[in-house]
């Protein structure tokens, strides 16, 4: 009892009473690392955001932009496309250096008005870019639309902007003109008269008809009406008469048939190997001579004596194969009699050597026989004729390439050569006179892969059934075809090397590629004899048999021309 009472008599300790402020201080001191550090991080992040926003506003204002006029968008676009811009810039820079080896490395910078930087101008005309999806050559597959986007991220004072603007000759309906003013194109247009037409009589242009680009020639300019008179072939008609039409001038309607337009084709693409020089010696001692086509050295054999003493002014080359002996004999007995006609054959020499020595009218090409290698046979015919003419001092005016399933009325062709304007016969035959798109279907016989031909169009060409070239054309194309990129479409390849020499096709309805009443090939067994006629024809393609070749020959004397 005494112990219990003593415990009860001891005073109890009193609790310390803290104010709210003291409690908060004590809590922060105990938990300072879990409270103060997050607060400090939030403060620093907020301060950083506010500082960056202020700096960005200052930059936009210095560049002459604002949120209302797209200045913020311009800066954002520039940052997001920097990597792609560097890639296209490098590609364009390399191309510029190749094409201007004697000029400065970079083009002159456009001047800036009043010290204010402006956006890089690319195709800023009133009609802009006619085709945003057009692939610009030598830019790594970039389109006009993608290059336009790249230009939006550059300023006019940059070297890359000057290089990008060089591609305006491909993309723009009217090129950009540099000026001291920011709206230079508007000033350029205002300086031109209302009847400004950048064409003259005789110019070749591409005329947009619906979705097709058709080759047309300028035959008149009506400057008071800002109009131009064109002459072109009416599509899908049986007549070879040209149509004349007056059209209002529009840059997106008419385009120069020059480098700017042909850049959309493979006209200026070269083969990658080095062209070899070959010394040609004719005669039995060196029967297999050689020449070059698309950087490839090809041997051939031809009887030089067969080129001498011929009175005809037209030399004909007929593409054939070693197993078509009956077709060649039918031609020898009909339209080729007493004429300078040669059969161009590839494949095994043993298969053709007896016929070669017996008839002496064969040009043998030392390579395998293949449909995809016909281009070499056609090109080698032109090369051999040009080489023989130079070596033997031959006098001829034209050469004609055709096939062994064609009938050629050589007498009528010679009449045409004598009476026709020589300019119309530099590159003559059956042509659609339009820019045809390559066939990309692998199942099609005329399929063209993007690897071999990446361009979107073929140049206008003469079909391979009959290609007539003048002597001056032959002398030029035999040089350009040595370094031109190979293409297994023989008729398009000839058009490419002819375009390099400045020649465009002349269409003639005297060359009939198809039969009027027969939808058949030469291998069809059913023949329609009523279709055998040479009325108003010089060349009839798709002869169905050697017997029908003879029938066409017999109709020459009765069918009018």
UniProtKB/TrEMBL annotation:
InterPro entries: Glyco_trans_31, Nucleotide-diphossugar_trans. Pfam families: Galactosyl_T. It is a single-pass type II membrane protein. The chain crosses the membrane at residues 33-50. Keywords: Glycosyltransferase, Golgi apparatus, Membrane, Signal-anchor, Transferase, Transmembrane, Transmembrane helix. One of its GO terms (molecular function) is hexosyltransferase activity. Belongs to the glycosyltransferase 31 family. One of its GO terms (biological process) is protein O-linked glycosylation. The keyword Membrane applies. It comes from the Eukaryota. This is Galectin domain-containing protein. SUPFAM superfamilies: Nucleotide-diphospho-sugar transferases (SSF53448). It is found in: Golgi apparatus membrane. GO terms for cellular component: Golgi membrane.
């Amino acid at each position: 009892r005494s112990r219990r009472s003593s415990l009860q008599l001891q005073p109890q300790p009193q609790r310390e009473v803290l104010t709210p402020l003291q409690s908060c201080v004590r809590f922060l001191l105990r938990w300072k690392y879990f409270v103060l550090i997050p607060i400090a991080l939030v403060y620093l992040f907020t301060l950083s955001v506010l500082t960056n926003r202020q700096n960005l506003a200052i930059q936009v204002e210095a560049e002459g932009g604002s949120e209302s006029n797209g200045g913020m968008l311009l800066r954002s676009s520039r940052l997001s496309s920097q990597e792609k811009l560097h890639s296209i810039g490098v590609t364009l820079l390399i191309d510029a250096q190749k094409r201007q080896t004697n000029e400065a490395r970079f083009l002159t910078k456009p001047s800036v008005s009043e010290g204010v930087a402006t956006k890089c101008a690319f195709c800023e005309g009133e009609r802009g870019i006619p085709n945003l999806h057009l692939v610009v050559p030598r830019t790594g597959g970039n389109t006009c639309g993608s290059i336009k986007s790249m230009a939006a991220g550059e300023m006019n004072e940059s070297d890359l902007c000057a290089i990008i603007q060089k591609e305006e000759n491909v993309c723009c309906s009217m090129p950009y003109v540099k000026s001291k003013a920011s709206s230079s194109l508007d000033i350029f247009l205002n300086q031109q008269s209302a009847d400004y037409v950048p064409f003259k009589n005789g110019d070749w242009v591409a005329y947009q008809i619906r979705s097709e680009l058709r080759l047309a020639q300028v035959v008149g300019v009506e400057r008071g009406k800002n109009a131009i008179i064109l002459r072109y072939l009416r599509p899908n008609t049986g007549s070879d008469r040209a149509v004349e039409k007056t059209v209002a001038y529009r840059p997106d309607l008419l385009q120069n048939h020059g480098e700017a337009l042909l850049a959309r084709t493979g006209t200026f693409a070269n083969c990658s190997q080095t062209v070899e020089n070959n010394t040609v010696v004719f005669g039995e001692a060196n029967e297999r001579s050689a020449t070059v086509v698309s950087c490839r050295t090809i041997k051939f054999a031809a009887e030089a004596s067969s080129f001498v003493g011929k009175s005809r002014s037209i030399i004909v080359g007929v593409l054939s194969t070693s197993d078509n002996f009956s077709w060649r004999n039918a031609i020898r007995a009909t339209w080729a009699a007493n004429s300078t006609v040669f059969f161009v054959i590839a494949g095994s020499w043993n298969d053709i050597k007896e016929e070669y020595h017996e008839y002496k009218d064969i040009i043998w090409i030392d390579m395998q026989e293949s449909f995809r290698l016909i281009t070499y046979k056609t090109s080698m015919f032109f090369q051999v004729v040009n080489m023989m003419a130079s070596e033997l001092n031959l006098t001829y005016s034209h050469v004609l390439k055709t096939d062994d399933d064609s009938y050629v009325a050589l007498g009528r062709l010679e009449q045409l050569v004598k009476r026709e304007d020589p300019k119309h016969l530099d590159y003559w035959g059956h042509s659609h006179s339009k820019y045809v798109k390559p066939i990309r279907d692998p199942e099609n016989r005329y399929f063209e892969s993007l690897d071999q031909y990446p361009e979107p169009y073929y140049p206008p060409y003469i079909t391979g059934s009959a290609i007539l070239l003048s002597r001056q054309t032959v002398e030029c194309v035999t040089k350009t075809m040595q370094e031109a990129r190979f293409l297994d479409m023989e008729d398009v390849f000839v058009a490419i090397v002819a375009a390099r020499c400045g020649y465009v096709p002349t269409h003639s309805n005297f060359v009939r590629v198809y039969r009027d009443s027969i939808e058949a090939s030469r291998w069809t067994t059913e023949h329609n004899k009523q279709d055998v006629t040479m009325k108003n024809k010089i060349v009839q393609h798709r002869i169905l048999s050697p017997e029908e070749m003879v029938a066409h020959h017999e109709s020459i004397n009765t069918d009018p021309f």
